Amino acid sequence: MLTYKKSFLLFAFVVLVSIVHAQTKLISYVRPLTGTARMGHVFPGATLPFGAVQLSPDTDTIPYEMNGKYNPDVYKYCAGYQYSDKTIVGFSHTHFSGTGHSDLGDFLLMPTTGELQLNPGTADHPETGYRSVFSHENEVATPAYYKVKLDDQNITAELTATTRVGMHRYRFPAGGPAHIIFDAMHGIYNYDDKNVWTFIRVEKDGSITGFRQTNGWARTRTVYFAMRFSKPIKEYGFRKYDPVQAYRGFWGKFKQDKNFPEMAGHCIRAWFDFDVAANETVEVKLALSPVSTEGALLNLNTEIAGWDFDAVKAAGEAAWEKELAKVTIKSSNQATLENFYTAMYHAALMPTVYMDVDGRYKGLDQNIHQANGFTNYSSYSLWDTYRAFHPLLNILQPQRNADMIQSMLAHYNQSVHQMLPVWSHYANENWCMIGYHSVSVIADAIVKGNASFDANKALDACVATAMHRNYDGLGEYIDRGYVPEDKSSSSVSKTLEYAYDDWAIAQAALKLNRTDIYEQFMKRSQNFRQVWNPATGFMQARMSDGSFIKDFDPLSTHQKGYIEGNAWNYSLYVPHDPAALISLMGGKKIFLRHLDSLFTMHLPDEFFAHTEDITRDGIIGNYVHGNEPSHHVAYLFTAAGAPYKTQEWVRKILLNQYKSAPDGLGGNDDCGQMSAWYIFNSLGFYPVAPGSSSYAIGSPAIEEASIQLDNGKTFSIVAHNQSPVNVYVKKVLLNGKPISNWQLEHSSILAGGKLEFFMSNRHSN
Amino acid sequence: MLTYKKSFLLFAFVVLVSIVHAQTKLISYVRPLTGTARMGHVFPGATLPFGAVQLSPDTDTIPYEMNGKYNPDVYKYCAGYQYSDKTIVGFSHTHFSGTGHSDLGDFLLMPTTGELQLNPGTADHPETGYRSVFSHENEVATPAYYKVKLDDQNITAELTATTRVGMHRYRFPAGGPAHIIFDAMHGIYNYDDKNVWTFIRVEKDGSITGFRQTNGWARTRTVYFAMRFSKPIKEYGFRKYDPVQAYRGFWGKFKQDKNFPEMAGHCIRAWFDFDVAANETVEVKLALSPVSTEGALLNLNTEIAGWDFDAVKAAGEAAWEKELAKVTIKSSNQATLENFYTAMYHAALMPTVYMDVDGRYKGLDQNIHQANGFTNYSSYSLWDTYRAFHPLLNILQPQRNADMIQSMLAHYNQSVHQMLPVWSHYANENWCMIGYHSVSVIADAIVKGNASFDANKALDACVATAMHRNYDGLGEYIDRGYVPEDKSSSSVSKTLEYAYDDWAIAQAALKLNRTDIYEQFMKRSQNFRQVWNPATGFMQARMSDGSFIKDFDPLSTHQKGYIEGNAWNYSLYVPHDPAALISLMGGKKIFLRHLDSLFTMHLPDEFFAHTEDITRDGIIGNYVHGNEPSHHVAYLFTAAGAPYKTQEWVRKILLNQYKSAPDGLGGNDDCGQMSAWYIFNSLGFYPVAPGSSSYAIGSPAIEEASIQLDNGKTFSIVAHNQSPVNVYVKKVLLNGKPISNWQLEHSSILAGGKLEFFMSNRHSN
């Protein structure tokens, strides 16, 4: 970990070489490999903005359990790729970005030559399977394109993608028989019974179609595919690896080992052989569908009609360039440019498009639905993304955000629980993490006027979700005002987050003139007071009998009552009423001292060693940036009357927690939340409490920025006298008029205009 | 087994009491319990003609394997019900009729009271589970209705059905808490990994929806359902019985044991509780769909809108009455009436409707298709049914038969094998038995002018199927003219059936003026000669080197070369060219002596003991009626110039092999083939070689019959001087003109008119 002083020194020595030229493509600043080492859990492969296909190399996959026990190493492979690995197993088509639990990894392809090997082999002995050694020297990763040399057989693999189709180009240097392995057993987070069923057909025209059904993080999940090769298959075959094969039926009348066009079973690996000339390439296109193989073929034919790999790559790069150009920045620091556009890239990966080109998708009821008037999205890590990611979309991607909300409302309509999504992916609710922060996303959009959906129905869905008594201690919360720890664990975290969500619902109700709801939920939103223990000075778990839990250690990350945070961090989670929090904690002076302690206390290196989803780098003092509950905390200095400390710490966090290197992310990127935090803070403001129409002003890290709004207007940001040490904001002008309350209104951004920061190396407070 | 003389005596003593009155409903003659003992493999429950739902009691289900070995007892439960059993496990919604291998048994319901038991218990100790003792005294079975008293708790269960919906009425004599068990693990022919996945939702309106995916005889099979109860559910729950539960996800935030509305897993049993008053009934409606739960709800709402069980039952009975009334017969023998209408019922159960009310169905490619202009059917046991069942439909149900052919052509279009169905069910090809007798069904319809489909395309599909070199020895057959036993087992049976199918294709080609195909396949149709061994006088297996197989025992049912028949029976399988067969066998005199031997030879009782799909009763001498390859054999007497022997033996088979009693069927009913044989022969004629436009005349067993044709005409049959001993036909008049060649043309039937038989107790030959 970099200390405070060292980091400043380092900053001062950075060679100032780079600025954005009109000629330089923004995509050239994106480093998909950033965050692929350790705990970033991002993937380096080819994908389009919010694309359904994430075609990326998997360097390993580890069983979820070893000898009946959870295998902690599985966690490293949430996105399938670890930078320190020496081998690549193959290229699969679906990956989460930055999650702390996982799934996916569907339909792995791997080109090989020589003797056919159908098992992946081991990292230590790659020669025992189809995997290959590779080197980062022979690796190129840009958002829409990935290239690597597979050293074992000197095969070059290139990947690109459209929204729903992955395209591969494999170059075989030596002529002769070449294999393309199609591993339909491969997957991320594999359990013994994860592979429920696989069905593969070789169609009459040589297309390969089928589906894979899994029981993983998503319990009842089916992904359909359609695949084509650029040259005729010479021969093909498959092998079943089913755990039980009690009944084989009457299939014995065929020789099934070769060229048998219908394969099915729990666990299947297939292979396709081609005669290739020396240096010949074989291209593969594989389309996904949430609906059917028919849908996959439609997607395939619609998105990539021909075999022009370079054209697909160029179109993908153009799509990314357009996406990145929503914000152009100026910085004399190359790392800032790289970090910023890498963050822009990471904040445009999830949720992913989840419908065929004709608008059909599978719903939570496993029926096929038509998305009328919106694009349906899947894979919502809402506990993370409600904080900064969705607010960022309300500025940069209002239509996408409204479509995502439409998708969440469709989920609600299909839900037998009558709940909005908690953590949902691929027509499943996986119930991961706590709260129901869909309501925050919806309220934020309503309050900010980005509600191209039926806002009143959306509010009804929020209220129904917030009244679901059977959900995770919520009945107790409704009755008592807090979640008792003896009834439901992580009770402090739940109580605090429910209270914030209550406030968000109330804000939407206020906007929609639903007074009864406003009053009901404003009252509930004060429930954070129920877990405040004046005796300890922390938010603390209570029992059903009203007593606070005994044996309380506010530093312990094992302390009952919290999840992904300790009492120090979580006690500050009242984003919607910092004034009340400050008052509870004894007023501004004591509160500021408390915040100072949080950021500066010295904890032993091993203190967070057992916290699996952040690295030691994800921590500053006892401030945990690698987990989300503290993401608003730096702004509490401002609320307590010390904005210069906000400015100081925001800049330190930006510098400290985000680096342009494979190990540059201090924790899981969490589906864009960590990156959205970076983008907001780099621009100089942050949505402390989504559901509010205003942002708190921090300290910008760029020299200039220009936000191209969907309404055609431009919002410009200029940081005068910007430098690594000039972190303090002396003055802020909006369209020439000073801002005195450290608040920026969303409407001011939408109106276009200019925000000017005047930076200094000294603060005036 | 009844001997020849005893049977005549018995016949003479039958009290002649019954004739058909206009007032007597034909349905009253149907005995659904006939064939439920031993090897008939029919089910006694409620269904409609060709209905998608077969709602029937299961008296047991046995695992397919015990200790890793095939469990022969599983065979008894092909239709879920054995008459000799003392307990009923419950009522499931899908059953095959008369098959010799099995599947299905989906969605078992069972009403219970008292302590909740979620496992079925054992037959010996029914008190250990939810099953109940029952008695045939308290059992009523008619085609559209089934009723039984469940003795353990004195609950009366009644079942009825529409095409796609099963309806239950349970009467609970004592008030209090009542359970309805919903066992989604229950199934017929269960393997260790048969239950692939089950998904159940309790919808907001109290409907239960979901699906069950199995890996059985059908490899990739999903059945969707929607269920409603007549009164509100008090509470409900489920239990998982998954073999492996490596990963449980984040579902712990709910109490899932009770009232949790989304259940999923490999193996699930659920329960629904109701508060009932004494003698209160609870009704249940459960609809099936091949498409989705949405489709199941559509079927449910369309077919049974309300809760009038008696009205559904009455409509079902009316549907059956209409079906049965296609043939009205007159007989002074009650058993004949019962046998005939039971046969008519059994010949109207399969194939089953396989589409939603809106025409959507799942195809072989697992995509959803729309049946345009036809009703889609599933479950084709074609090796059996091409012989007499489909020819019967060409008379009684021409539109259904044409629709079934349309369904087979849809299957062909969806097949990656580019083959017509062999044995297909529920969007799967299970490849059971030999040949590809779809081509016979199609050829028969084309030749008989019942081709309301594209006949030329259908012929192309037949040719493509017959040219599929990878299929079951067919490549060898094409190259050599026979299937070598060392390349593909059952080689004689295959060679003979391929040769017959070749002839059928040729007949269709002739009708369609496709001369090249006609010539090609007429040549192939002579391939039966290739396996004729003049040295032994039997059709005998040959090796690749051309030699006949050594160690030949023509009586042995273990002899290599045959399936479901020995050399004695199979050597007569040249239905399309009896003259050539007779010539090969040494001329008419020797041939007739051979046939006499077949019917009269004495074999020890245990000879056929190991033949699992026929009972000892299914045999007369060495003539095996319980398996299909001999079904045309009695007519070979006529071909050899001794029609009186055909007449004599046909009447003996009718009397001997079909009885109106639970053990009244001499073998599996085979999806209506055995029953169709009964109907044709009772009426006095039989389709010896489907694909021919003519029938061979036999000896009618009724006094009068009237066939109501779809074209509005009536074809009447009168047997003058009919009696149990007057089995010989002295003379036959068609519309007053004598028939001298013992042939009846299909066109003569379609034209309407009158066929008169003049019966005698003496023959003139």
The number of E-state strands of chain A comes to 39
CATH class descriptor name of the largest domain in chain A: Alpha Beta
Number of helices of chain A: 19
Q: DSSP strand (E) fraction of chain A?
A: 15-25%
Biggest chain pair interface:
A-B, 61 and 60 residues
- End-to-end gap of chain A: 29 Å
Instruction: Report the biggest beta sheet of chain A as strand number plus sense, adding barrel if it closes.
Output: 9 strands, antiparallel
- Secondary-structure-based class of chain A equals alpha+beta
- The stretches of 5 or more residues of chain A where confidence is low (pLDDT under 50) are 1-22
Numbering strands along the chain, what is their spatial order in the largest sheet of chain A? Answer: 9-10-11-12-20-16-15-14-18
How many whole angstroms does the radius of gyration of chain A measure? 26 Å
This entry's quaternary arrangement is homodimer
CATH fold-level name of the largest domain in chain A: GH92 mannosidase fold
Shape of chain A: globular
Q: How many separate structural domains of chain A?
A: 2
Which bin fits the share of residues in helices of chain A? 25-40%
Q: Determine the CATH superfamily of the largest domain in chain A.
A: GH92 mannosidase domain
Mean pLDDT of chain A, as a whole number? 93
The CATH architecture designation of the largest domain in chain A is 2-Layer Sandwich
